């Protein structure tokens, strides 16, 4: 079963909804999207938009033993994985967010890391990371500074709109994080 078809009115109504975190203490990796898309906010499932490559990248990288559907997001916890967002506000596109929202989200994400202590926090979206944490020259991969007790990693944005990364290069970036997490 794929994501339900939603009309424009249902998607626009999702702008006021908050998407709950999928998080628990002691995760290996807490993934953080930039912010919920309208499809995600409408369904309550992270990375729910058809064409988003988050779920395939998790599987192809070896982080999950099978391809999970967005509606199966709670199963991530059994693999030591979780999901949150830097900014909580749902938008059609991440570029609708103000820099202040991303910086406030960075503070929120640091508090979440301190509270739940995942081994890694992986932010999927380098531009959002650079803005949220005021690191304009940051590159993909592990960052030199931790986020609370967690090692901090930046991955490419898995949105289908991100044409800079193919499905295979995206999966390779996720696999690099998996290897680092397994090497601890």
Automatic annotation (TrEMBL):
Q: Which InterPro entries does the UniProt entry name for this protein?
A: MUG/TDG, Uracil-DNA_glycosylase-like, Uracil-DNA_glycosylase-like_sf
Q: What is its EC number?
A: 3.2.2.28
What positions belong to coiled-coil segments? none
Cite the entry's keywords alphabetically: DNA damage, DNA repair, Glycosidase, Hydrolase
Q: Give the SMART domains listed for this entry.
A: UDG, UreE_C
* Pfam families per UniProt: UDG (PF03167)
Any one Gene Ontology MF annotation carried by this entry is: hydrolase activity, acting on glycosyl bonds
Broad enzyme group: hydrolase
- Organism (species): Tenggerimyces flavus
This chain's protein is named G/U mismatch-specific DNA glycosylase
Q: Which segments constitute the Uracil-DNA glycosylase-like domain? A: 20-178
